[in-house]
Every structure is written in structure tokens, then in C-alpha cells.
Specification:
Low-confidence stretches: none
Shape: globular
Distance between the termini: 10 Å
Oligomer: single chain
Largest sheet: 6 strands, mixed
Radius of gyration: 14 Å
Order of helices and strands: EHEHEHEHEEH
Mean pLDDT: 95
Strand content: 15-25%
Strand order of the largest sheet: 2-1-3-6-5-4
Structural class: alpha/beta
Number of helices: 5
Number of strands: 6
Length: 151
Amino acid sequence: MTYKAAIITVGDAASRGGAAAAEMLQSAGFEIIYTSGVPAERDTISAELIKCEYERRADLIVTAGGTGLSHRDVTPEATLDVIEREIPAIPQAMLHYSLDITPRAMLTRAVAGVRNNALIINLPGSEKAVRENLSAVVPALGHAVSMLAGR
């Protein structure tokens, strides 16, 4: 079964994080049904997450960017605004994996959770960090969305 994924790049339009996420998810068997870029504004990010889940019917929604410490990094807050259940082990797995690469990994504030039947995961914005973080969790994503779909 092929699952549908949506990718939202937050903030800097020059970020390659969204493209890296698309490449890795396609390689893992996900169909990329939607990509977008949104400004780093909490309400805009939340609305885009809802759109991906409700209108686009994405099984997996990945954000790239906005998980750091600056005042404009509001992706985790926007995600918490729309999810029904948090899945803390996903960001923990990404953190554990990334800490072996750089101590700066501990500065992430990424969130993962469920909205209806969609899994939402926050990733950092840089291409390198997206690849590292997704490497930690991509083996479990197919099973996760399958469980959410009731299969």
C-alpha cells in the first residue's frame, strides 16, 4: 500500500530541507501529494497543517524548518495547536540519532503527533539535518501510518 505524504517548508524559501524530505520519503515508498512553503507565522503554519490533513488527505505531514530557538521558530507551537495526541518518542529518536552527529541537536524543539488519521512530524530546516532526522525514523513511518489507517 502506498501512503500519501505532504511536505511543508517553513520560513526561508531557499531551504532545501523540504526537497530532501521529499526525496527520502519517496525512496521509502510514500507518494508526495503536496508540497508548500509558508511564512514562519503560527496561524499560517497551523492552517497549512489542517489543510494537508483535511483537504489533501495526507497520511503523513512533514514540516521542514522553524524548530529552533529564534523568536520566529514557531512550528512546534503551531503543530501543538492542531494535533490531538503527541508522540514524544519520534522527536526523541531523532534527537538521540542526531546527538551522535552534533551537540547542537539538543537545541531542537521538534514535535510529532496525530491529527485524525494523519501523522505530523516537525523536522529542522537544513538539508543535512532533515536527512539525519528522517534517517532515524523513516523505517517506522510506514507502520505508523498503517496503524493510523486502521490496517
